[in-house]
Each structure stands twice: as structure tokens, then as C-alpha cells.
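Comment thread on ticket #2218

A.B. wrote:
> Attaching the input chain for the structure job we discussed in standup.
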Amino acid sequence: MKYDLLVQHGEVLDPAAGLRGALDVGIAGGRIIEIGAGLSANEARQTISARGLIVTPGLIDIHAHIFVNAHDMGGHTDHYCRSSGVTTMCDAGSSGSATFAGLRHVLDTAVHTRVRAFVNLSALGIVGTSRRGELSHFPYADPEGCARTISENPDLCIGVKLRYGPNLVWEYTTEPVKLARQTAAMANVPMMVHITDSPIPLPEILAEMAPGDIITHCYHGRANGIMGQEKQFLLKEVVEAQRHGIVFDCAHGRNHFSFPMIEKALDQGFLPDTISTDLTLTSATKGPVWDLTTTMSKLLHFGMSLDDLVERATSAPAKIMGYAGTVGTLRPGANADLALIERRAGNFALTDSDGNTTTAKERLITRMTVKDGRVWYERPAD
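C.D. wrote:
> Ran it. Output below, let me know if you need it in another format.
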């Protein structure tokens, strides 16, 4: 048999490969081996009909949290990924140099989702209560340990994470950002900076960043965001930063996704470079995040095209994570990761992080997830 698995009759959408249309996907040995119309079912050990569904590469969530407080989703990570079409995830700084071994153990023994990670500038990682963050006391910073952890774990670590906000850093100047950038330079990786409710204007943070660095929570509706304190028009520094290679990640989360901000930003032509959830156990079970396809549905409602959504949840994060060409695409030779997604019409209540609710006329629902050539999840009939 030529194919171990043949996915037929779906509407393939893969911006990275320039694929869009009624195409079949042939899989063998855990890899995509052929894409085309009318591939023969007689040459397949197993066939799946994707009729009426969109077939995309397996989705990639570049900002989630597996190991907050040294547990959180932990060994339950697969459950929350596969049901939303996510085959690859990035832990965004849950652990630091002192706690990374714990994250590594969980990933090596209990998680099948493909994972990479940012390492927190704080040795502690994200621990404690919301009253005091992991870098509220300067001695918690461990630039040398952070860089060493990254260099000793090249298969997992892709960058440095800094959460910059009230009670998160030891002083409200650019010094924490400068230290994170120096650490990233030591490890020769990018840094990701959380900016929600920043005590200093965003342009001051952007001035310390390099191309390839990431601003995360770009659509928060609190102080010092992409539209400054007036919250009406995009800052020219934001437009220039994106043009010069600073990555803007939406990262929904419980506090970082404002419908009014999204609507204004999209109306002014500002799209995120990556779409992610900032998923934790709480936001996956109690909302308002739920999962990546729900986050994508919210952006779809406010005017992003399906092509733009899929690109920013597949090939764009794949490139940042070092997976370009092997994950986040359906090109022959790539890992056989697929999401089969229904674009369902109806009336759907969607909620942002500030309690604002809107009614969407359609939403995206994962019907099936294929990882490494095998069916990993199938949604029950409803």
C-alpha cells in the first residue's frame, strides 16, 4: 500500500505551501508523502473523509503554560491540545533555571504534544500569587543560569521570557528589559516580553528589542499598550517595530484580550504575527480562553481572514520555534500533523478577558486531529 492514511474530500488550506482547494492528503511513515486531487483510496490502508471540513496543518500554540507553579496542565497537556487541533505547543516561560528540570521531566515522561519552551529570566519561573511576581525581587533574576539552561537544552529551549508589569519586576524602568535582552544575546536566542498593564510606555520597551524578539499580549486593553494611554490609534513605534521584525503575539489569556482593542487594531490594519492562547488549566476549564480554535474564532468574527488565521497558527509560529518546513505545513516530507476543522454557522456567544461579550455568526470547531500520521483525536458527533 502506498499510503498508511489518506484524508480525502477536504478543503485543504496551507498558506506556507500555497495550498488551497479540494485536495487529498496522502500519509505514510508519519510523513506527508503526497498532496493532490483524486488520490486513490485503493492504495490506502485507512481512509478518512473530510468532506465539508477545512484541512490545515496541525495547529501550533506558541504561548501556553504547562508548568506554572510547577504543575498546572502538566501531564494533562495532551488532553487540552489534541481536542483543539494543536499538535505543537510552546511553554512561554513557566519555568526558570531552578525549575526547568521539572518541566523537562514532565515533557519527557507524560506529554506527547510536541513542545518547546522559553526560559524565564527568573530562576523561579512563574510561581506564587498575583500579588508578587517572579522578578519582584532582583536577586531572583538569573541571567547566567537562564542562558546556561537554554544552551544545555537545545532540543527544547528557544528563548528568554520576561513578564513586565506591575509587581512583576523589581523596578519600573527599562533595566529588566535590558537584562533580558543581554541574556538572550548570551544564549543567541530571541526574547519574549509580556506587556500587559506595563508601568512604562511601550515605545521604551520596543527601543530595547531586536528583530525576532516577541511582544506578547499585544491586544490587551490596559495601560501602555499598542495604542498608548489614549487607546485610539496605533503608535507609530508599534508599526515601525513590526515592520522591522519585532513579532507581535496576541496570547489571549485571562487578562490580555480586549474586544474593543482588537476591533480598533484590525480596523487600522494591525494584525498579530502569531495567534496563541496563553492557556493554563484555569483558562482551559473556566474560560474565557478555552482553546486555540476559540481564540481564532474571535479574531475571525472581528474580520481576520481564514487564510491569515491559519498562517499565524501554523507556519508563522513553526518558523519561530525552529520547525519551518517540517511542522506547520502539509508539504510532502513534513510531519503528518493535520487539523480537520468545521466552520460552523450559527449564533455563538464569545467573551474577551474583560467580560465583554459578542455574538458571532460562525465559529471554528476541531473535528479531528492527526499527529505523526495517526488519528489523535476525534470529536464525538453532535
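A.B. wrote:
> Thanks. Noting for the ticket: Residues 1-382 form a domain with the TIM Barrel fold (CATH 3.20.20.140).
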